[in-house]
Amino acid sequence: MESIREFIAASQHPHAYARALKESGTAIIGYLCSYTPEEIIHAAGLHPMRLFGSAEDISLADTHLQSYCCSLVRGALADVLAGNLEYLDGAVFPHTCDTIQRLSDIWRLNTKFRFFADVVLPVKLTTESSRAYLSDVLKKFRMDLEEAFDITITNEALHDSIQTFNTIRDMLNTLYEIRSENPSKISGRDLHGIVKGSMIMDRDAAAQALVKIADELRAEAAPPAPKRKRVLVAGSVCSHPDVYTMLEKAGAEVVWDDLCTGSRYFGGMISTSGDPIEAIAQRSFDRLICPAKHKSITIRGENLVQAAREHDARGVIFLQLKFCDPHSFDYPYLKEFLDSQHIPSMLLEVEDQLPGEGQLLTRFETFVHML
After folding, report:
1. What is the architecture, at CATH level 2, of domain 17-156?
2. pLDDT category, 351, cuts 50, 70, 90?
3. What is the DSSP letter of 353?
């Protein structure tokens, strides 16, 4: 399907896509976290571009970051130091974790882009004071963009942007539901490319293409569902489409996920009425949280179990970036929570490169066999 190939091409060659977009006169703002208020960037006429780190040699980051920082941050820093992100006009850093907070300072001191912003979002998402604080942070971010790019971000533009992102989220959720119902309709590898591409492509074009893909998949005759074990993948960022291919070889299908490059990215719609800044802030309270945020002691485990039950997943695979502190702290409690619900799980720790295919396939086969 041509539309799917467009997303996959963007996900595989993000720099080439961004440079072509830059040549059209579009200013590009980079970000690393799904809590970034993309709607405000988009409403400003700018392009929000998620950075995943693509430098083959991330040793350039060694002079600035300790070896125990995750490969996502090290890769992004290596990219900018190597000159691979010359197309950026700026970057946004939500305070997600200590490593990204430190990257923010290093980035600010070692780059000369037009725009830089720390967006310090609240951690505790259960109080009215945190809601008011978040709205104030987003209002300041709006004003910072207006000042830096000499523009006015109107409420009308924000509402239009919210509608665009709601379409993207709705269609991504639809594609996930289609795959959950029958994994033969779209491969896990292709769906991974679509989600990742959605964070890179022009958002208006992405929204239109996603509607087309969803319509075509719904209209297709359903092939027989594969006789593989159904699993859920949980973690932070998945930059390895080979994971999905190897799981299929091992006899499993990923039917849902709890990833910030997956369901956590598109979860939660934004109201199209009322104050748009308040509506954007509200989504942070409605969406599935990551370990860097807090709602209750057990909410992450409850969400994981609920997703596994709803999508008939027989096991959970934790795909965890090495040295990712928030997810590392979360893992023991989540495993214990899954054990109490008799849901098997396994932990796969990865960096910028996956373990050897033979080793990884053996681990997957062993886990799938016990489901």
Report:
1. 3-Layer(aba) Sandwich (3.40)
2. confident
3. S
